[in-house]
Amino acid sequence: MKTYSGAPYAAATHSALQRRLLRNASFPPRTAQQDALKMSAVPMVPEVHLFLAEDSVLLWARLETEDGPLSAPYWATPWPGGQALARYVLDNPELVAGRRVLDLASGSGLVAIAAALAGAAEVTANDTDGYAIAAIQANANANGVLIATVADDLTDGDGEDYEVILAGDCLYTAEVAAKMLPFIGRAMQRGATVLLGDPGRGYAPPGLLRTLTTYESAPLVSGEDGQRDQTSVLTPVAVALTS
Ligand SMILES: C[S@@+](CC[C@H](N)C(=O)[O-])C[C@H]1O[C@@H](n2cnc3c(N)ncnc32)[C@H](O)[C@@H]1O
């Protein structure tokens, strides 16, 4: 099911989660409560502000205290791959302008927001984590853009009719990469433009993805990840990615 941000917070599908996110967020930032979310500029993409964790490990612990076992709050960090890809999209708006865009593994919604700011006709952000969906909607509202969200796992398909598929840091474990890479190959085969942001975690098959540009990585706002020096924007080059 698709839901659209841009509506008042209380009307959103994930309104309870959204209310919790917003209740915990502060702007200007608090300093006393280190497990809070705060509205922060993204280091490589200062045009975009997001609700981000001051300390994502503490945030995770607090959310689990409230809700029981949860996935790590990946949505509360702008990952290096997402930052690089969002930067690239904003600097090359012709890639998305007037086109239907899917941001796969969207997390905070950073790349989707960049695509919307760059003039995409329609942007859908997809993530299988319900907390990410709530964060995407809150972040889209905060940045004044309209983004649809989808919480289904789309990786068995080929990206439907999206003309551009963007994916920041979607190759972060072997298991996830094994789902993402065949999807990316199928999307490319049907003619979609596919762009990945990847900091070189070792799951991007050499020879199958071409580097478009490489950035010096910015420091993470909240360090779930070891700092990586460089992050590249990649595009698939071979049909060999298909399953
Ligand atoms: C490392 S985070 C990257 C988030 C964001 N793109 C960024 O760069 O900041 C990866 C995200 O992929 C999501 N994810 C994992 N498997 C997925 C799947 N099969 N479909 C959609 N999202 C998935 C996770 O929930 C997480 O939010």
UniProtKB/TrEMBL annotation:
<dbReference type="GO" id="GO:0016279">
    <property type="term" value="F:protein-lysine N-methyltransferase activity"/>
</dbReference>
<keyword id="KW-0687">Ribonucleoprotein</keyword>
<keyword id="KW-0689">Ribosomal protein</keyword>
<protein>
    <submittedName>
        <fullName>50S ribosomal protein L11 methyltransferase</fullName>
    </submittedName>
</protein>
<keyword id="KW-0808">Transferase</keyword>
<keyword id="KW-0489">Methyltransferase</keyword>
<dbReference type="Pfam" id="PF06325">
    <property type="entry name" value="PrmA"/>
</dbReference>
<dbReference type="GO" id="GO:0005840">
    <property type="term" value="C:ribosome"/>
</dbReference>
<dbReference type="InterPro" id="IPR050078">
    <property type="entry name" value="Ribosomal_L11_MeTrfase_PrmA"/>
</dbReference>
<dbReference type="InterPro" id="IPR029063">
    <property type="entry name" value="SAM-dependent_MTases_sf"/>
</dbReference>
<dbReference type="GO" id="GO:0032259">
    <property type="term" value="P:methylation"/>
</dbReference>
